[in-house]
């Protein structure tokens, strides 16, 4: 299923969290019928209801139709409430089956499905090497007999409390702690290995080497997205930002202008997701960030971690608008106009009035001693 990605799943599955739990052992392949691959998904409720999920065999070629016409479930959620909504959304049982299919992409499983292939390579040249192939995971050393299990600081954590974070059991593995220069170079490396998708989030952006690496990935057929702060991109102080975004847009990168949690907030995260590798920290995608002490981390995501990151990026993208050519033009004109403005502004006559008054009062009080 070349079209199947974490993006597709995150967009279409109503309850991704539950789907991920069900994918962890509640899906059982059943014999195929003429038109479909069949799966039984046991529900989380105490009664242990089982639902049959049918995946049309035509799904192996391409997603030319709605997702709901390819996969269906007998549960009330799928057949009643989601059907009413009219959106192309599926239930958690379908989500669990899709996640299992996605997993076979990484690790062959007993599921009777063909292993999905990465997106087709458009440009000529060597096929990008999947990092997963280059770095086979080795089993770690066995713990010494009688080794104490480290007690977790989170045993008392109130996961239902206000602003509680969701704690993952197996989110992934920390691969590196990076400085600004290392992080930016790593971004270029990871993008050169991207197979299926890459998403970069930025507040400030002017780095040419990352721009080119994103464009090259897009040219190979990787789905490349950029989530940038709308206001800063259109009229902020990073001089080259719109020129870079324009270049990305021209190369088929989807550039989304986003905002913060509310309209007064900003998109301030600086992250890069390349397939299963996630780099995040304080490093900006700018030249000036290279002079700073920045701190970024690179994580190899496990399934649970990948879903958590995808879900968060999806949330950040919501309400974002694709950058248009008209916006590029007007933003570049605005920045040109600013450049031609005189640098120094006549100081106001009373500019130092408060400071003067303060220093006069201070010298008087000192003289009095
Ligand atoms: Zn269902």
Give an account of the 3D structure.
By secondary structure, the protein is α+β, with helices and mostly antiparallel strands. Among the domains are: 6-104, no CATH class; 171-328, 2-Layer Sandwich (Endonuclease, Chain A), CATH 3.30.870. Helix content is 36%, strand content 17%. It is built from 12 helices and 12 strands. It has helices at 6-12, 16-23, 76-85, 92-104, 131-134, 180-193, 208-219, 230-235, 241-250, 303-317, 325-340, 353-368, and strands spanning 27-30, 36-42, 50-56, 71-73, 172-178, 197-202, 223-229, 254-258, 271-274, 277-281, 296-301, 321-322. The protein has an 8-stranded mixed sheet, with helices on both faces. A hairpin with a 7-residue loop joins strand 2 and strand 3 (50-56). Helix 7 (208-219) runs parallel beside helix 9. Residues 107-137 have low confidence and may be disordered. Bound molecules: zinc ion.
Shape descriptor: elongated
What's the CATH H-level superfamily name of the domain at 171-328? Endonuclease Chain A
Radius of gyration: 26 Å
Order of helices and strands: HHEEEEHHHEHEHEHHEEEEHEHH
Q: Poorly predicted ranges (pLDDT <50, ≥5 residues)? A: 107-137
How many beta strands in the DSSP annotation?
A: 12
CATH C-level label of the domain at 171-328: Alpha Beta
What's the end-to-end separation, in Å?
Answer: 86 Å
Name the ligand types: zinc ion
CATH topology of the domain at 171-328: Endonuclease, Chain A
User: How are the strands of the biggest sheet laid out side by side?
Assistant: 5-11-10-9-6-7-8-12
Strand content: 15-25%
Q: Can you give the mean pLDDT? A: 84
Number of discrete helical segments = 12
Please estimate the helix content. Answer: 25-40%
- Major sheet, described briefly? 8 strands, mixed
Q: What is the CATH architecture annotation of the domain at 171-328?
A: 2-Layer Sandwich
Structural category: alpha+beta
């Amino acid at each position: 299923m070349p079209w199947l990605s974490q993006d597709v799943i995150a967009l279409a599955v109503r309850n991704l969290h539950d789907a991920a739990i069900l994918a962890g052992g509640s899906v059982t392949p059943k014999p195929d019928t003429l038109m479909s691959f069949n799966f039984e998904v046991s529900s989380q409720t105490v009664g242990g209801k089982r639902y049959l999920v049918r995946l049309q065999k035509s799904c192996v070629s391409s997603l030319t139709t709605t997702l709901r016409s390819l996969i269906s479930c007998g549960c009330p959620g799928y057949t009643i409430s989601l059907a009413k909504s009219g959106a192309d959304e599926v239930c958690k049982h379908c989500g669990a089956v899709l996640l299992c299919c996605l997993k076979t992409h990484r690790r062959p499983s007993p599921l009777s499905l063909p292993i999905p292939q990465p997106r087709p390579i458009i440009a000529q040249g060597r096929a990008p090497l999947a990092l997963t192939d280059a770095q086979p995971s080795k089993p770690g050393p066995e713990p010494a007999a009688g080794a104490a299990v480290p007690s977790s600081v989170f045993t008392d954590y109130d996961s239902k409390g206000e602003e509680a974070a969701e704690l993952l059991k197996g989110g992934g593995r920390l691969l590196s702690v990076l400085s600004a220069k290392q992080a930016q170079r790593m971004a270029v490396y990871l993008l050169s290995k991207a197979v299926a998708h890459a998403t970069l989030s930025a507040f400030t952006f002017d780095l040419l080497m990352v721009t080119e690496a994103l464009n090259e990935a897009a040219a190979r057929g990787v789905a490349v997205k950029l989530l940038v702060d709308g206001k800063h991109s259109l009229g902020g102080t990073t001089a080259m930002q719109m020129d870079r975004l324009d270049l990305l847009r021209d190369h088929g990168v989807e550039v989304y202008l986003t905002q913060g949690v509310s309209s007064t907030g900003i998109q301030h995260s600086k992250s890069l997701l390349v397939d299963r590798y996630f780099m995040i920290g304080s490093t900006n995608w700018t030249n000036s960030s290279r002079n700073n002490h920045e701190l970024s981390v690179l994580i190899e995501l496990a399934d649970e971690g990948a879903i958590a990151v995808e879900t968060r990026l999806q949330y950040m993208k919501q309400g974002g608008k694709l950058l248009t050519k008209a916006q590029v033009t007007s933003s570049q004109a605005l920045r040109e106009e600013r450049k031609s403005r005189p640098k120094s502004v006549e100081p106001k006559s009373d500019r130092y009035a408060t400071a003067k008054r303060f220093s006069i009062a201070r010298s008087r009080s000192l003289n009095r001693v």
